[in-house]
């Protein structure tokens, strides 16, 4: 069951630490089954309640998952797994359309803004005790939120969208609580929730966003929070439409104590209007990241929300990092003020690449989804076979298993750097990869 690795320890903390060390070192691999609690207790000479406490700790830390009588096993993406074990291996010479990155050619030059802000900091360094939010950033961000119909409320600045989501979940939920997540959806959230000791409830998604009936079922079954992607949903490209926003808001108003988190990471790279849900519940958070439009290394997102939520996030932030670098905040302000990114042109570029590939796939009888953003989602009958055949043909795509809980299989194709000349060959390869396997073929 565990190969040559032997779990050690006499107390619950020691046993849990032994498993975590093994997972981090790769000695225990994702999916590997752990011994039944009584069996491990006998082997270690401890009370079964001690092992049960250790397993509970591991579940709350997102290391293992338990499926009743089927036992406990290492999660597919445990929080302690070394990151190189999770990376997509793209061989030399293979076109990488799996990484989910924006097109570097559409990102702004950072040097002028950074140099100007650094020069200002040399004249007047940032010291302890200042305002954690740059006033001009707050002013510009709030004006944009007002224009998009996001309710008035205080702001915080955090280190990216996932940092915001983690902080908001931790501010309101406790281990064992259930959070409704999109399915398929951003795999990082599905991994983050168990790492916080939370359970997930899948909510189906179509081109117009989360399905209202699925959300209602999740909330009626006890989900205390929901995470919704406003636009450029990863991996499907869904964008919440006006009718869907009304339907989702109606569901949420029937469960006013639900924590609502909206992720608008697509701001600046999409040309579809925003239809916010914020305000439908007592506690809400709206997150707008700059990563996709200005560069992933600009670890900054603006978080708007109700006063209680923002106060909790900022209070906990003060006890940890304190604030997001004012140098970084002022750099973003300068980029905004200088018009460093032409949002309409960027959105048009991504839209053109999506639509060209979607049309080419449709001509070959392959349906796809990609209403916004930089990805296409292609339903497939067999993810493993499709990914392997495409890799053999020279194209690396992301397997849908990275994004799914219970949704049907699919593959994600990142089109951000796809050229018109590559579109037809890629569409041919995808169509061929979805053909039934021939007897004697290699995959």
Characterize the structure shown:
There is one protein chain. By secondary structure, the chain is an alpha/beta fold. Helix content is 40%, strand content 14%. It has 15 helices and 15 strands. The protein has helices spanning 12-25, 37-44, 48-60, 111-123, 135-147, 161-172, 187-195, 212-220, 242-253, 291-294, 307-319, 326-338, 343-363, 383-392, 420-433; strands at 64-66, 72-74, 95-96, 155-158, 178-183, 199-206, 209-210, 225-229, 259-263, 283-289, 301-305, 375-379, 395-396, 398-399, 410-414. The protein has an eight-stranded mixed beta sheet with strand order 4-11-10-9-8-5-6-7, sandwiched between helices. Strands 12-15-14 form a three-stranded antiparallel beta sheet, covered by helices on one side. Strands 1-2 form a two-stranded antiparallel sheet. Helix 6 (161-172) packs across helix 11, helix 8 (212-220) packs parallel to helix 9 (242-253) and helix 14 (383-392) crosses helix 15.
Summarize the structure.
The chain is α/β, with parallel strands linked by helices. It has helices spanning 12-25, 37-44, 48-60, 111-123, 135-147, 161-172, 187-195, 212-220, 242-253, 291-294, 307-319, 326-338, 343-363, 383-392, 420-433, and strands at residues 64-66, 72-74, 95-96, 155-158, 178-183, 199-206, 209-210, 225-229, 259-263, 283-289, 301-305, 375-379, 395-396, 398-399, 410-414.
